[in-house]
Design a protein that fits this description.
With 170 residues, this protein is α/β, with parallel strands linked by helices. It has helices spanning 12-17, 32-44, 66-85, 88-92, 107-117, 131-136, 140-147, 159-163, and strands spanning 2-3, 9-10, 23-27, 50-57, 97-104, 122-126, 152-155. α5 (107-117) packs across α7 (140-147).
Length: 170
């Protein structure tokens, strides 16, 4: 049994029936910290939730002629897909739906855009913890904390050892 906000008792079944699936957007750049953020998102999710793993890429140079530009853009996209390929075996082992996206733009801007379009409940990112000076110069997590209208969960570099994320063991 659980206590509702109006003071009446509800059964556990009624309490879980009102929980809607959540969407978690995870920034992934291939770093150990991003991998921990992905694992934390899995550990925080329920089978009915959806995790959207996003990798942001820099655009191909606009100085290139059209055929070269298209080739460069394809190479950038393929390299980004290879980064996300590291996570696909883990994604296949969990009940939660996991989707992958590669988008062009700055990482914070891309994550905010995806979170808005997907009506995300939170954005999850890893932090390299490079200190205050580096953070003041504009790390992705700092920019997200300043600009995002969605909750942002920043996972510190030592989080894996503290919380023992089982998803990393896969």
């Amino acid at each position: 049994m659980s206590l509702s906000t109006n003071g009446t008792l509800r059964s556990a079944r009624a309490a879980t029936a009102t929980i809607r699936p959540r969407t978690l957007v995870v920034g992934y750049d291939g770093s150990d910290e991003a991998r921990v953020a992905f694992a934390v998102a899995i550990d925080r999710s329920q089978p009915s939730d959806r995790i959207v793993v996003v990798h942001a890429t820099a655009p191909a140079s606009h100085w290139l002629a059209p055929p070269s530009y298209q080739r460069a853009a394809e190479q950038i996209h393929q390299a980004a897909e290879r980064v996300l390929d590291e996570l696909r075996p883990i994604a296949e082992q969990v009940e939660t739906t996991i989707e992958f996206e590669v988008l062009e733009g700055s990482p914070a801007e891309v994550l905010i855009r995806v979170a808005t379009v997907r009506e995300a409940d939170e954005i999850v990112v890893g932090s390299r913890g490079r200190g205050r000076l580096r953070g003041a110069l504009g790390s992705v997590s700092q920019e997200l904390l300043r600009e995002a209208t969605h909750p942002v969960l920043v996972i510190g570099r030592d989080a894996a050892s503290v919380i023992g994320t089982p998803a990393l063991a896969s």
